[in-house]
What we know:
By secondary structure, the protein is α+β, with helices and mostly antiparallel strands.
Amino acid sequence: MADKSNEIPAAQTLIDRLDLDGKRVVLGALHPQELTAQKLLFERGADDVMTVEANQKSLAQTLETKRPEPFFPPRPTPTTQAYRREHNRSRREVRALNTMNVTPEEVGFAGAAPIGKLRTRGRGCRRKVQETRFLITSASNERLDAFGRLDAKRGYWAIESSLHYRLDEVLDEDESRVRGGRAAHLLGRCRRLVVGFACEWLRKAKGTKKNCRKGTRDFQDHLTANNRAHAFALITASTPSAWLQN
């Protein structure tokens, strides 16, 4: 990513470089941009699945209000409606997605086909969460039904939560002043090595609260406890798993 830039033009540049013909591209709430959708659909031959949140105020309001309900709505089917109970990030979640077909002219967005309203209710670590998001995609219901959209959305966050969050929020990669050259490459590899060790430790670690798992910050605390005894055990371990706690 260039200096004084952001993820939007960086993603558009990456789209131009990749072979995406016939592929499905899932993008977060920063990327529902006309140019991005046009590049994916018309230039690269790919379908998009985009999340629309409050940061896209005009588009979110359009998806919410510019679709009056008919007097006799069609009966929901697995193609247009999905409901699922699952565990995510140490909490129990219920996700419900309702979709309907629109035209690009109705919502003012390139390639828009089905749109969906995703409601999520979660409970865990003594907290309750309730969220509403919108999904907009160029893939028809025949190519991607409501359950497929739920899977696509979950798959996107699996990447975001398992690697990017740990690098950016826990290990402060975005705050690093080392931006280029071999030093940046070496620091990046060290951070990813730490994430690898943390993932291995987290597989066996247990949270202190019911329905709560430990995280990468707990792994850091584990290494620094007892005058950094566990960190010393890690770097002096004779076998790859010898440093793990029993």
